Amino acid sequence: MLTPHIIESVVRSALAEDAPWGDLTVELAIPASAEIDARLVARESGVFAGGPLIVETFRQLDPRIEVTALADEGEAFAAGRALARIAGPARGVLTGERVALNLCQRMSGVATLTARYAAAVAHTQARIADTRKTTPGLRALEKHAVRAGGGSNHRFGLSDAIMVKDNHLAALGAVDDASITSALRRLRERAGHTTSIVVEVDRLEQIPPVLDAAPTGILLDNFSIPELVEGVRLIDGRAIAEASGGVDLDTVAGIAETGVDVISVGRLTHGARALDLGLDAP
Predict the structure, then answer these.
(1) Which residues form the Quinolinate phosphoribosyl transferase C-terminal domain (predicted)?
(2) Which of 33, 94, 206, 263 is the most exposed place for a label (fewest CB within 10 A)?
(3) To which CATH superfamily is domain 121-270 assigned?
(4) Class for domain 4-118+273-280, per CATH?
């Protein structure tokens, strides 16, 4: 959730990094009385995200700066579109320009890439979801951008839900069908009744013993298309079927067509490039 506290904290940290002792150029070259009226302009097409971060950046620098949104979060736009108007004291606008652009370009890049994945699977039941492969300190921003692009959020962090992977099972000594089922049942007994439990498998033969423990979901990791089809058949609606691994824009539609419910894609965040946006002042 992109809360006001997170927005304030991220922006404050970014401004402290960029201008720890003020903006030397602005303070020496720009009169305190100077005003500017600029537009955030798209240099390429995409999907917009990050408006609240732009507002907060200029609010922290000078509350007299007026930011007017000209595009909504999640709105698609063409190259040349004005996405926001920033008007007011020039010193604050010029000091905040790069921080506002960096945050908005990053978030809009994630939203734009997510929208491409979501469009590729729109003819299926599958949802596109993000992962924890995010930029440290910017997870809330990037997950917000995924939602703006039409994707879904996986767990926010390790505290949100239980995800049992192969190394967890190895650490528990769960090496055969009976021990896997037993270990997962004990986990279910210790977890709260509202806690989601997802178990990662990398072989078809792991699915039946995992299903016997009644998990919330089963993550089919790096399965081939035929294996995914068989995995969905074995799960048969008794748990959420999630596919992960080897997902890109060339493969995602075929993966979705196997009948999986969710496709988690690390590339949405760690593979997105910043969108080309600029701040233009007449």
Answers:
(1) 110-280
(2) 33
(3) Aldolase class I (3.20.20.70)
(4) alpha beta
